[in-house]
Every structure is written in C-alpha cells, then in structure tokens.
Request: fold
Amino acid sequence: MSLLRQKDGHELLQMMPPEDLAEARHDFRFIARNEQKPPHGDWTIWLFIGGRGAGKTRAGAEWVRGLALGLPDYSAKPVERIALVGETFADVRDVMVEGVSGILSLDLFERPLWEPSRKRLTWPNGAIAQCFSAEEPDSLRGPQFGAAWCDELAKWKRADAVWDMLQFGLRCGANPRQMVTTTPRPIPLLKRLMADPRCAVTHAGTTANARNLSANFMADIVGRYAGTRLGRQELEGEIIESRADALWTRETIEAARVDCVPEPGRVAVAVDPPAGGGTKSDACGIVVAGRARDGCVYVLGDETIGAARPDLWAAKAVAAYHAYRADVLVAEANQGGEMVRAVIAQCDPRVPVTLVHATRGKWLRAEPVAHLYAQGRVKHAGVFRLLEDEMCDFGLDGLSSGHSPDRLDALVWAVTELALGRSGVPRVRGI
Reply:
C-alpha cells in the first residue's frame, strides 16, 4: 500500500520541504480526501454519493484521467476506451469535460485533445473517452468500453434503459469498471446499485469540501437548508424517502411517468405568484399541463422562476403560454388580486387570465389532485426533479422542507383547472 493511502494527503503536505509544496498542492494525490480516492477491494461499480459541491466531479475527472494514463492506484495499464455519460450532452460537455472541476481543468502534463464535434477526448497515448447523453439510450448500442463514468445518475430521465445499454458495452479488458457520481434521490436504480455486492459506496456531504467553496454559499445556502429534508438530500447526500404524511410517494410519481404524450386538447399555464417581489420574495411557481382526449392530464413543463420582480415572473409565464400554445393562464389571486391580471396584461394583453382564489388550506386543495394521481389520471411527460421533490415532501403542515411549495401550488391549480370542477369533483372523461 502506498504512503498516500496510509496518510491523509494534507498530513503529507505538512511533511514536505517548501520547494516541493507548490507543485504538490496541485497534485490530486495530495489534496484528495479519502472518499475521493478509488476504494479498496474487488468492486466493479464505484458509487460516490455526495451533496452539492462535495467534490464528486473532481473525483470522477481524476478517475478518468488515472484510467486513461494508467496511473498507480487507478489502473495497472491505460484503459483504451472510456464512456462519459451525463444527463444531456450539454451536461457532459459543460460539467464533466469543460467544467471548473472537469477533465480539461486538471493540471495535466498529458492533456487530452477535446473534439466537441466528435464528442470525444483523446490522450497522447491513444486512450479515448466518448461522450453520451442519457437522453439517448440507443447511442450506447455498438460501442464497447473498458470503463465508464456516469454523472448525476439520479437525474437521468431514462435511467434504467441507459444503464442497461451501458452494461452491454462494458466488455473490453480483463476488469471493466464504472464510476457513478450523483447527488441522491430515491430512484429504484440507485437503490439497486447500493444493494449490489459488486458496488463500493463512498459518501461525502457539502461541508466536507468547504475549503473549496464560496463562503457566501456556505453561509447562505448551507445555513438556510441545513437540517431540513431538502438539505439532508442536496447537502448531506442522504437518500430521503417520502415523508410518512406526504400526499405523494416516489412510487406514485414513477408510475405516472410517460415518454409519449398524446395531443392535448386544452393546455393551461398555472401561476402561483409570490408574496411581495424582488430578490427576497418566494419563487413564482409556473407549471404547464394539458388535458388529452384520453381524459388524463399531462404535466408538460415546470417553468418556475426564482425570486424576481412581478414584471419578470409575468414575462416568464407569458412566454410559457406562447411556447406551449396554451389556452388559458390560471393565476392565484390571493397575493395581489387584480395586480396579477394587470402585470400579465402589461406583458401581453391578449393572454386570457383566469384568477382563482384559495379558500382552503394547501393540503385540502392538493388532496383531490393527489387522488387523480393515485387513479392514474395525471401523468408526467418527463422528469421534473424540483417539482417532484416538493410533492414527496409536502405534508399536513402545508410546507415542503419547511418552505412554501411554490411549484406544487402551481401544479395543483393547473390540474384543478383541467380536471376538477369548482366543487372538487373530477370532470368526466374527454376534453
């Protein structure tokens, strides 16, 4: 076992003569935390679960570099073919390859050639890393690899299909391996990997990498969400199941997910305006849904905008109305009343606005919508991660992770408009 595996790298830095320190501080062998180094043992999958900013991307980039160059503690010899798989090709390019912690950011003596048009990296020794989008499982048919790095697997829209296709391609060399770096969500594939005896799991929270993160981020974001359910998932890297009193479960939402959407007969953009305005207000929930001839409501988009002035969230809502060719824009009138209609009219007076008033608590308004999900009458046309997180953490207190569920509120208004009468009784099937 090397000395680097016996001691923390930062301890070794303290032991070095000053003339070697400058170079060593850029060497990942010395600055990596133990959980960022490849695990011991006979594993085929390395699953690195971590919070936001925990150093997952840097660990993945260094792992790929170590494999390509055949570096000690990574590979006995260079791995000639490596797959890089991200949520989209843009994510592979912007995070895994060109990102601040990506492969091209590393302090390399043997820098790979990056060819974006060919979606590949080529090292001077001939090792190649090819880029793939998790949106296109069939793109993994045919190519073969000796290793793969999968980033943010918990966000992949077609996780199982992509994972299956990748496994068929891992057939080069004596011991094909793969690394998965992700902030967790309780999706079935991630749970299966964690239970797989061939999988080595390492874990790190955001605070473990605090020395490399903005002080403002640590104070504002970590300080705000630490201890909440959302914070435990996004910062501490815990798998958070649906809360016991939640109206929705992950299983219900996964069962509602579809790849194909029939032509909707009526489309609604629902807006949950924030109380107040400006950067200190809540987010403005904006959700788009359509009702098809099969009687089901299909959630088409989550266009929610963060804290912003009324003119900005109104412009975003109007843009969604036109982009989805909607028939109506539904807005809650409790916050501002006619001001909501007026600010939308300033953006486009042709947009028809229906104002709705919340006369019951959030739970009571959401309950009929949750029943429609249970009956299979509401579908998700894709993955809406932040919206779905709010749904699974929405309880009797009317809050999600201790905050107002702005996305969920907009969803409830959209589904209510399309599928429920004013009395809360489901409408008959058909348009």
Q: What stands out?
A: The two ends are 68 Å apart (CA to CA). Residues 1-7 have pLDDT under 50 and may be disordered.
